[in-house]
Amino acid sequence: MRVRLPPLPLRPGTGPGVAAAALALACAEFVRSGLYGAYLTQASPELLGLPEREAVAVAATAFSAHFLTDTLCRGPAGALIARYGARRVLLAGSALSLAALALLPGVHIGWELILMAAVHALGFAALWPAAMNLTAGAARPGYQGRALTLVSMCVMPMIGAGFLLLGALAPGGTTLVPLLVLGVQALGLIAVLGVPGRGPRLAAAAPTPRRRRMRVAARALAPLLPAALMQTLTLTLLGPLLFTLARELGLDFWGMVVMLVVGGAAAFGSMPLTGRVADRGRARLALVVGYSLIGLALGTIAGTPPVWALYGLAAVAGLGYAFVAPGWAALVAGTLPEAERPAAWGAVMTVENAGTALGPLVGAFAYRHLGTPGPFLVGAVLALLTAGGYTLFRHAFRQDAQPV
After folding, report:
1. Where are the alpha helices (DSSP H) in 210-340?
2. Count of alpha carbons within 13 Å of 380, Cβ hemisphere only?
3. Do residues 165 and 287 share a domain?
4. Rounded to two decimals, what is the model's pTM?
5. How far apart, in whole angstroms, are the C-alpha atoms of residue 65 and residue 157?
6. What is the rounded distance in angstroms from the CA atom of residue 316 to the CA atom of residue 291?
7. Are 152 and 128 a contacting pair, CB within 8 Å?
């Protein structure tokens, strides 16, 4: 008896190009997460010859400079992709990133490290808009949410691998780590050669004046920007506090790991079904259900339940995320006009990054003033507000995708 596997959510012939873009993005994220999230904070005293506290402050400033530059440049990077095609822009960006990272072994002054991080971000900024736009264009009709989520989920393990591996190699690794970083970044540059110059050709249509096209794009983009901010703000406010909150909820390290595994398994296991809901013209419904489940889970955790209940609540939150990820991908892909999608996607990602930067600050503020329940309570309120916004302003989102 043959087992029939589900079809890939990509149109025939587009898989290699999408895979190349995903590999380039995964390599770049491996480098970024490991370098700024784990390596520099440990190695900066030796690299810069400074006392530990001063060196860590410089490393944190370099991370902020990288993140801010990436945030500000995603919109312009998307516009360049729309004009020159993905391959040219990604080749230039990946080469610039490689050149910046090649300076790492010779960096011994704080401002040099900060400048290197900013130049690295200039090259990095085009990767996410290019990968998402290429995937959306390559997706089979009615499969955009699942295709975009598949690419994002394939990249995520490399983010964790970079953080863990470079963090483990950081003590005494001032020679090995730069070589590893350059090797992985070079692999990403080679992968870009497989990215198509431009996405699939659009169907022939009557010429439209540029000003009118920009007005249409702006109207489609307007409701997505506050939604993008609320989503990343909600989903990132617990991140830096995770170890602290886990202890205060009665979880040890391995208990927290098991809780995360339960949540991840619930998300990955249910995503084929939740993605189908999102891609059948019900992206908003998927988002409303997803954020309602996340709000329910966070609100219940704010009541500090017994430890055994936390694992069930992690599964509820994971199921909520399984609705949110493909729902958001399908909504963005179906709302943005196809001709202006690269630049518009860059603008959406700029706002997403702003929410990612603000989330930890909001979480820390809530923890300081409300204690352990604070971040969960604020997260629950934000999640339910986001779900309510998708319900109240449902007519603001124009969906091009048709049910299948």
Report:
1. 210-221, 224-236, 242-248, 253-279, 283-302, 307-335
2. 16
3. no
4. 0.76
5. 24
6. 11
7. no
Token pair for 315 = 């599964």
Number of domains in the chain: 2
Q: How far apart are CA 124 and CA 30, in angstroms?
A: 12
The tokens of 208 are what? Answer: 């439209």
The DSSP-derived string for 49-83 is T--HHHHHHHHHHHHHHHHHHHHHHHHHHHHHHHH
What tokens were used for 45?
């005293």
* Closest alpha carbon to 231 in 146, 328, 117: 328
139, 161, 192 - which closes a domain? 192
- Distance CA(217)–CA(219), nearest Å, equals 5
Per-residue pLDDT of the chain (404 residues; tens, 9 = 90+): 454 545 667 888 888 999 999 999 999 999 998 898 878 888 888 888 888 788 888 888 888 889 889 988 988 898 899 889 899 999 999 999 999 999 998 888 989 999 999 999 999 999 999 998 898 888 888 788 888 888 888 898 898 888 888 888 888 767 889 999 999 999 999 999 999 876 555 444 445 555 655 665 667 677 788 888 888 888 778 866 776 788 888 888 788 878 888 998 998 888 888 888 888 878 889 999 999 999 999 999 999 899 999 999 999 999 999 999 888 888 887 777 766 677 777 778 888 888 877 887 788 888 888 888 999 999 999 999 999 988 887 776 655 443 33
Give the residue numbers spanning the domain of 95. Answer: 15-192
Cα 2 from Cα 359, distance rounded (Å): 47
Q: How far apart are CA 111 and CA 128, in angstroms?
A: 27
Map residue 205 onto helix, strand or coil.
Answer: coil
> 85 in the Ramachandran plot: left (φ > 0), alpha (ψ -120 to 50) or beta?
left
Tell me how far apart the alpha carbons of residues 248 and 230 are, in angstroms, rounded to a whole number: 27
- Pair of tokens at residue 344: 């518009």
**Domain CATH number, residue 165:** 1.20.1250.20
Q: CB count, 10 Å around CB of 287?
A: 28
Could you tell me if 131 and 186 lie in one domain? Answer: yes
79 with 219, same domain: the answer is no
Amino acid at 229: L
Q: What token pair was written down for 154?
A: 């394939």
CA gap 331, 106 in Å, rounded: 45
Burial of 392 (0-12, 13-18, 19+ CB in 10 A): exposed
